[in-house]
Sequence to fold (691 residues):
Amino acid sequence: MKYQLICNALAACAVSAFTAADVSAQTRPSDLEASAESAVLVFAPGFFADYNPQTARDMIARVPGFSISAGGGGRGLAGNLGNVLIDGRRPSSKNGVGALLSRIPAANVERIELIREPVPGIDMAGQDQVVNLITDRSAGWAGAWSGRLRVFESGRITPAGEVSATRTAPRSTLTLSVNLSSHGDGSDRERIETDAAGAAIQRLTDRVQDSFYDLTPSLAWRRDFDAGHALRLDARVWTWRHSFNRGTLVFDDTDLLSAYETGQGETLAYGGEATVDYDHVLSETWTVKLTALQRLTRDDGEDLFKDFDAAGAFGGAISLLETESEGETVLRIEARRSAGDQAAWVYSAEGAYNFLEGDLDLFEDTGAGLVEIILPVSDTRVEEHRVDLAARRIWAPAPDWSLEGGLTVEFSRIAQTGDAEKERMFTYLKPELTATWTVSERDQLRFTAERDVGQLSFGDFISSVNVTDDTSQLGNPELEPERTWRIQADWERRFAETGVITLLLRHEWVEGVEDLAPVGGLFDGPGNLADGRRWRIQGGFTAPLDRIGFAGGELSASAMYRDTRVDDPVTGEPRRFRGDEDWRASFDFRQDLPEAGFAWGVDYSVQGAEDFYRIDTFDRVTPPRGDLDVFAETRRFAGLTARIGADLNLGQQDRRRLIWPVSRDAGDPDRIETRTVDFDSRFYVELNGVF
Fold:
């Protein structure tokens, strides 16, 4: 009965959609073009008309065989270049291009180009393929808005929405927007602890309720000048608040109530980011791009956990106070030299300064008042100075071949002060080569070889405490970035008008695998293990279903299998990487019936278990049997798109923890903890419109 009202409404919309399909079969307009070399596929706005897109992001999300990526999560701007261009220029914001696209109304889109291989005149930045969004500069003022109400199982209702307005002129574009997001996620949990023989020790049940909101106003401005020069500014500020409440009942080995625990906490944060870049055309063959980025954030958190016996008498308390300030400054210059239609050189230099200053205070109250517990490496500042020098060449040695190769040299200095004093220097060479073979207009093969250096999380340099799990980890001033040599092969085949099949094979040799490592034989802390390896096979397809009777239907599916190996620092035995699931799969079906004004769809995703290792524990976390999302939408109301949907968790998340008295290499575990988590499902009503 819990989902009956919403599910009945969804079913009614789906039945209406199927009924409409009998009245009028729909075929998509032929608004797709391909260049003679099949390197570029061009999608006119009419191609997306079935989906009634409100923003540029809605349109790009429907480009067959393409997924928006914010970048590789690497270091600086160079390591976070996404796979979307706007008017041939790459946005420099580290916020991710998806946020920029959601502010551009669909009415401002002239066309979308899918570039499938390195092209000398296009900034691919090592991506297999990119989308180039061409905007219409003659629309004047246009805007888009969306509003959503989520209803959680707990009964909480939270709002979310965004409104953006864009003014375009032949030489300038201005976009203003405000975004509000919030949620009220909750979960019911049970923990059962036994000894190695299965005898009960204790059982805990708890309810956790979260509350979150984020408010982000933003601005994007661009001005084009004579001779192709352009100036762009992207800026945003934000404030967010996260709070939680937790109530736990503790039962003894006879299943009688023996104690209860409470927990509550709140974190407040604010920050801002601004990026300015300037493109200057020096000549017919040379262009220069200058970029500056500044980001600053701060958050303050306070958590309090209390213990009581079964009669309500106070038993103790733990208090956590945490403050973090973080910043990043980046300056980058990039020069591009074109050598006709067949080749180009790109040279770049990037300098960056990053810092994180954190202070964690832990207090314990056993009945005589709060007493501070001194944690090592809990009050510290980490700073990084880094310089990247890079050269890249793009060329087409034959009509059906294109190559992109480059070399980056990175120099960096990491210094830590406060509770820990350390300074280190690093130098890394990062070569890469991508070869693309266009076998035919439908088939394409890509081969990639590269060396990547991972992005360190400065939070790993500072100690942290998890009161719920009764665990802690020490900050590690000796932590180094993970380095990876990677080879990869991709095959893509296009069929019908929008069908795509993809297959990926990847093998990686990982130097200094990042994980939790023993510190002094007693504690856990972020560290570097021995070298490891990882391989992956992934496939997917998108197929139109018109020919089998589902007019306007489209089916997408993907699956991935991954195998990882590294020597465990405690036992010496080979094992998986920490937190890497070994498989995952997804399924997505959508049917659009534009003449009836209806659409409906369902998507399902599921993944394998993840393993986590500490000195004295081993955890295996098995996700629920999948996440199922269903929706139905209509465009019959005053040009608005109205949608109702449900995000359903199928089953519970299970965690099995094995606990050793001293270390995992000392015989069998003496305790076993089994935890189940039942996450709240949610339902939503959403309206989207343009003005």
Residues 31-137+260-481 form one domain. The first strand starts at residue 32 and ends at 34. The first helix runs from residue 4 to 23.
